[in-house]
Write a structure and sequence with these properties.
single chain, 265 residues, alpha/beta, 9-stranded parallel sheet, 12 helices, 9 strands, globular
Amino acid sequence: MSRIAATFEALRARGRKALIPYVTAGDPYADASVDIMLAMAKAGADVIELGVPFSDPMADGPVIQKASERALAKGIGMPQVLQIVRDFRARDAKTPVVLMGYANPVERYGVDRFVADAAAAGVDGVLVVDYPPEECEAFAGKLGAKGLDMIFLLAPTSTEQRIREVGRIASGYVYYVSLKGVTGAGHLDTAAVAGMVPRIKQHVKLPVGVGFGIRDAQTARAVAAVSDAVVIGSALVQLLETLDRGSVAAAAADFIGGIRAALDS
């Protein structure tokens, strides 16, 4: 059983929902990512999504776009991202890490090399935003052979056929994008989320996490009531970008601890 599957099973047994924060590797400080990740795990994060910086992150809004730009300016590429995971894994053997990003950095690094190095570093899952399921069955197979989960996005516009295809190939969990548009945009409609999650579960026998538009404890709790996991990114990235190096880990812990308390209350 993968670390992700084991995490969700343990949460389900305790009647809890998963909290999945997203941060961009190397942002806001190149040497702070491991400290931030460790602090979030200790504060109640169940899975951590670590963004791979990319120059054209078309699914991301301005907050995460700027985080990618800052990280790239500090020289953060795939080798540095994998080193962050190795350093985190040396101090936390339990919390799953999912690399989230785009096809270009993976393919520039080399697909087979990426799969091997990600597995060796302690990565648990991969979400490539611009890999549709019908075009990456071989990639999913390579990940699965190394024990890594292939995670996919679904959206309000996803067709029944796309949902079925994701259900056939995905593992770990699926990430439902609750809004049309980019990360950090718009107003969250929890009634629409509540209607969509059962549609997804007809075809996808995995936990469903919901993200985009979750900014605080109140919206996180509302989403958790109708899903298996809450994914929160832009609000966290926006908070950390304003802080000095010495404050970022504690601030991340405070933020995640507040969300965790709301989910558990």
